[in-house]
Amino acid sequence: MTAAATRKLITRYYDAFNAQDAEGMLDCLGAGFVHDVSQGESRKGKDKFAAFLAHMNSSYKEVLSDIVVMTNADGSRAAAEFRLKGKYLKTDPGLPKARGQTYKLRVGAFFEVKRGKITRVSTHYNLKDWTRQVLGK
């Protein structure tokens, strides 16, 4: 895979995210997919990631902008940075009560790509900043 093809794949993945198109996101993923989150457990497999996406789409309405994708020379690894604007729709267990609060975050993600598909994504954001925003502090 080339660096350009990887950038196109990551862009397609985030375009699907912005459309809340879980199937489009899942189509970008390869065998043995792993989702690492900065404040949570790793999810292994497309089925677990699909359940996560369904939960996220019912609890949050999020849109990404200013997406920058960077890759290594052979396209096997990539990173992305973007702005996330969201609305907290339904209370997530262990988090503050949802009341339609809005929030903005800067997010980073790291990717592994094999045979034209994403095999790992590791997403990083500031949970303390998100919590401060939804609590109105």
Largest sheet features = 6 strands, mixed
Q: How many strands?
A: 6
Number of domains: 1
The top-level CATH class is Alpha Beta
The general outline is globular
**Strand-residue proportion:** 35-45%
> Ranges with pLDDT <50 over ≥5 residues?
none
CATH topology: Nuclear Transport Factor 2, Chain: A
Q: Specify Rg, calculated over alpha carbons.
A: 15 Å
Can you name the CATH architecture? Roll
Helix content: 25-40%
N-to-C SSE series? Answer: HHEEHEEEEH
Q: How many helical stretches?
A: 4
By secondary-structure content and strand pairing, the structural class works out as alpha+beta
Describe, in short, the structure shown:
By secondary structure, the chain is of the alpha+beta class.
Describe how the helices and strands are arranged.
Elements: H1 3-18, H2 22-27, E1 29-37, E2 43-44, H3 46-59, E3 60-71, E4 77-88, E5 102-114, E6 117-124, H4 127-135
Parallel strand pairs: 1-6
Antiparallel strand pairs: 1-2, 3-4, 4-5, 5-6
Description:
The protein has 137 residues and is α+β, with helices and mostly antiparallel strands. The protein has a single domain (3-135), classed as Nuclear Transport Factor 2, Chain: A (Roll), CATH 3.10.450. Helix content is 33%, strand content 41%. The chain has 4 helices and 6 strands. The protein has helices at residues 3-18, 22-27, 46-59, 127-135; strands spanning 29-37, 43-44, 60-71, 77-88, 102-114, 117-124. Strands 2-1-6-5-4-3 form a 6-stranded mixed β-sheet. The radius of gyration is 15 Å and the shape is globular. The mean pLDDT is 95.
